């Protein structure tokens, strides 16, 4: 036994060991406290079980690795996945580092949140914009179809035999083109033929004017004369039409042509009046405008009117002669009248001389200022309306006076205002009312007066003339095209003529209405949707006269949509889909592989590219059978095989029914296969292999449904798609990975059909064995061969089950169950 001295030394040794820094924990508790703590821990540990015990062991393990478990648990509990991108809690103002870190993280989170919101908004906006655009296009297509096919537009008496373009017999037996439209279509065909042959391009206006002669309509003849006059202006090739038409040079030329047209028409009017009143006119045999005007005045002014000034010429007042000679556009006749006047006209001769020497019928600034001054001093208050009108025309002054005393017709008023249009820069001292610009005149005619003022719907040709001669081609064409269905063809072909001459202003977006305005264009300039106008016009007859419609679509070859596709190709694609006239329009593939040309080949375009584009559009619309024909026509074998595989795959296992979809596609596929094999044409390796394998599988299923089990089993064994022997299972599973989805989808049906064949053959052999007469032991000598055959069938069935189980392909659950059931029945 040790004494107290020994115990004291032991205690001191333990204390020294603690102070040396060893890993033993220092306990600052008395023995009683240590005992209570130990008792409490033991009691708690004894009560722990199940999941809690697992948690304790996990805490002990993590603690042994140096992890502060309570601290980590507290931090994990403070995290919230739902608040990942929410702003962090603010920190104390005195914690500078924490404040800066918090601000940085908050800014990053704010950027992430804002970007996420913007992405969602942009995606949603683009979705609705796309949906709205598609709906707008569909609505417009429906409206165009309804407008183009309205009953009042169809002449049911028009016979298709009147067509000089199309040599086919329509399915309906009738053409929707009347005689006027057919005559125009003939001229379009002639024009396109010259363009394609790269010969001398004819004047399209002259062609249409030539066709209008047979209509025996004075208004139509005058319309084409007017179009011919107004289109004879300089045009800048390759430049923007809106900018070109806004230049003073082109506008001055347009006004000169309009004045010339109105003046020539008035000469014809005077000549008709004089011819109808020869006795009163006493014209005589002297040619020229001057005697014609004198004869006209003898009818129009039988007596001297009060208020006429400055003498006479051959007993006729001088100023009416000067005005009507000016109205007829003959300045030489005015000079003759001035020289023959009974009185001196003073400074007017100087003004007239300056006016005649300028081809543009414009006075020099000095002479014009002098004439205006003289007008304000001596002529404005004159009682002679003809004198005032002559001064206002030559000096382009007093534009507010409409001279209603002598301009009692719309044509006279329009001619007077065109004469007063000025392109000279305004001087600082001049008033805006002293000059009339073409833009101001257009606004007055189109917006201030408008259709109601001119009674446009009662006399559409008159309002068309007002708009057209004031260089508002687009508004004039749009008005005439919507006013009367009988006038639509004239308006459309006027637009065609102007567009081919580069004088028509088109919108940047072809989805706009027929008539629209660009915010950047000066008022009242408008743009004509030429593409939509043509499509609306052809909608009437594209179903019955597809070749004629194709001629009009060719006029759109240089206009492209937002995706860069030519509207010629786009309209051709829609025409092919609507009419189904693939062979007529695009040609066909002969049995020897050669391509027979269609109507598209006459236009000298890249036929291959056109057919490819039409085929793509047809495929995108879900018309896969038609797409196969078009891709085959275009020589794209890979696409032909790809689509044919998709079409044949769902039909392989079906029973063959005459005139069914399966029968139709199978015959088409066989014809393609025979031609491709004869020409040694192939597509991609996978598609080519799948195509021929699908045809062979169709043969297998035809034999299976026809109960030709021996032939069917021989066929499937030769195709080497499935394993019927144990030594071929691995090879067949490996080969399966190389098959396309079109083949894999048919594997369940192939397995079931093969297992049914094996089971049927097994039952047939067993039934024959059971019913055959037996010997003393109940069997015949030949039963051994039948048993071997049955055993062979069972082995094939087991190999088939093994193959199905090893496939890296998920078969339907009922397929596996059915295979096992059939295999069990063979035992």
From TrEMBL:
Protein name: Nuclear pore protein
GO biological process entries: poly(A)+ mRNA export from nucleus; protein import into nucleus
Subcellular location(s) per record: Nucleus, Nuclear pore complex
Pfam families assigned: Nic96 (PF04097)
Keyword Transmembrane helix: no
The organism of origin for this protein: Stichopus japonicus (Sea cucumber)
Ranges of Basic and acidic residues composition bias in the record: 779-790
Signal keyword on record: no
């Amino acid at each position: 036994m040790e004494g107290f001295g020994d115990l004291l030394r032991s205690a001191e040794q333990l204390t020294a060991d603690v102070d040396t820094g060893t890993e033993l924990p220092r306990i600052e508790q008395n023995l009683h406290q240590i005992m209570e703590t130990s008792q409490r821990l033991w009691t708690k540990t004894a009560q722990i079980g199940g999941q809690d015990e697992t948690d304790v062991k996990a805490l002990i393990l993590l603690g042994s690795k140096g992890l502060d478990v309570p601290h980590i648990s507290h931090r994990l509990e403070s995290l919230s996945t739902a608040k990942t991108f929410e702003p962090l809690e603010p920190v104390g103002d005195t914690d500078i580092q924490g404040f800066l870190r918090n601000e940085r993280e908050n800014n990053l989170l704010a950027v992430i949140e804002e970007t996420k919101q913007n992405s969602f908004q942009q995606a949603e906006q683009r979705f609705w914009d796309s949906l709205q655009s598609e709906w707008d296009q569909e609505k417009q297509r429906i409206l165009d179809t309804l407008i183009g096919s309205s009953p009042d537009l169809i002449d049911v008496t028009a016979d298709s035999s009147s067509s000089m373009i199309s040599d086919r017999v329509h399915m309906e037996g009738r053409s929707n083109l009347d005689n006027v439209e057919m005559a125009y279509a003939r001229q379009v065909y002639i024009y396109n033929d010259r363009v394609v042959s790269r010969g001398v391009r004819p004047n399209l206006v002259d062609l249409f004017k030539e066709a209008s002669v047979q209509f025996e309509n004075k208004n139509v003849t005058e319309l084409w004369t007017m179009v011919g006059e107004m289109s004879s202006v300089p045009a800048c090739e390759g430049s923007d039409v809106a900018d070109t038409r806004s230049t003073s040079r082109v506008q001055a030329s347009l006004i000169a042509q309009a004045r010339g047209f109105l003046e020539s028409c008035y000469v014809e009017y005077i000549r008709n009046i004089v011819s109808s009143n020869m006795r009163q006119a006493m014209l005589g045999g002297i040619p020229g405008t001057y005697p014609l005007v004198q004869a006209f005045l003898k009818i129009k002014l039988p007596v001297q009117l009060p208020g006429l000034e400055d003498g006479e010429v051959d007993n006729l007042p001088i100023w009416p002669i000067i005005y009507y000679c000016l109205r007829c556009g003959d300045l030489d006749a005015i000079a003759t009248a001035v020289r023959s006047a009974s009185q001196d006209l003073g400074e007017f001769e100087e003004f007239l001389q300056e006016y005649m020497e300028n081809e543009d019928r414009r006075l020099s600034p000095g002479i014009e200022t002098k004439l205006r001054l003289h007008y304000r001093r001596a002529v404005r208050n004159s009682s002679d309306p003809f004198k005032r009108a002559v001064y206002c025309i030559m000096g382009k002054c007093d534009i507010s006076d409409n001279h209603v005393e002598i301009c009692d017709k719309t044509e006279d008023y329009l001619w007077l205002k065109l004469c007063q249009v000025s392109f000279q820069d305004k001087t600082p001292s001049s008033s805006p009312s002293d000059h009339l610009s073409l833009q101001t005149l257009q606004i007055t005619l189109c917006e201030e007066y408008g259709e109601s003022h001119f009674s446009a719907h009662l006399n559409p040709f008159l309002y068309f003339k007002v708009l057209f001669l004031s260089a508002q081609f687009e508004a004039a064409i749009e008005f005439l095209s919507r006013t009367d269905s009988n006038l639509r063809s004239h308006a459309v072909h006027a637009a065609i003529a102007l567009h081919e001459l580069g004088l028509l202003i088109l919108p940047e977006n072809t989805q706009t209405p027929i008539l629209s305005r660009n915010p950047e264009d000066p008022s009242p300039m408008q743009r004509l949707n030429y593409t939509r106008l043509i499509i609306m016009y052809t909608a009437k007859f594209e179903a019955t006269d597809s070749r004629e419609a194709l001629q009009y679509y060719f006029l759109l070859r240089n206009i492209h949509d937002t995706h860069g596709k030519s509207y010629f190709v786009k309209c051709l694609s829609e025409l092919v889909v609507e009419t189904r006239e693939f062979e007529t329009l695009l040609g066909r593939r002969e049995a020897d592989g050669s391509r027979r040309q269609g109507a598209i080949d006459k236009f000298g375009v890249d036929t291959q590219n056109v057919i490819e584009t039409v085929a793509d559009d047809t495929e995108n619309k879900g018309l896969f059978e038609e797409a196969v024909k078009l891709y085959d026509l275009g020589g794209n074998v890979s696409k032909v095989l790809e689509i044919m595989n998709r079409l044949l795959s769902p039909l392989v296992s079906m029973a063959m029914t005459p005139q069914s979809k399966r029968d139709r596609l199978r015959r088409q596929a066989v014809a393609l296969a025979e031609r491709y094999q004869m020409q040694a044409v192939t597509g991609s390796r996978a598609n080519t292999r799948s195509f021929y394998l699908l045809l062979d599988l169709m043969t297998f299923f035809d034999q299976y449904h026809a109960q030709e089990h021996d032939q069917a089993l021989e066929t499937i064994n030769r195709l080497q798609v499935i394993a019927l022997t144990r030594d071929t299972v691995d090879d067949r599973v490996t080969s399966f990975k190389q098959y396309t989805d079109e083949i894999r989808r048919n594997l369940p049906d192939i397995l079931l059909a093969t297992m049914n064949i094996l089971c049927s053959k097994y039952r047939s052999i067993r039934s024959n064995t059971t019913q055959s007469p037996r010997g003393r032991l109940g069997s015949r000598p030949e039963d051994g061969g039948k048993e071997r055959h049955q055993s062979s069938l069972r082995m094939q069935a087991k190999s088939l089950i093994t193959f199905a189980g090893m496939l890296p392909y998920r078969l339907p659950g009922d397929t596996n169950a059915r295979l096992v059931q059939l295999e069990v029945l063979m035992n």
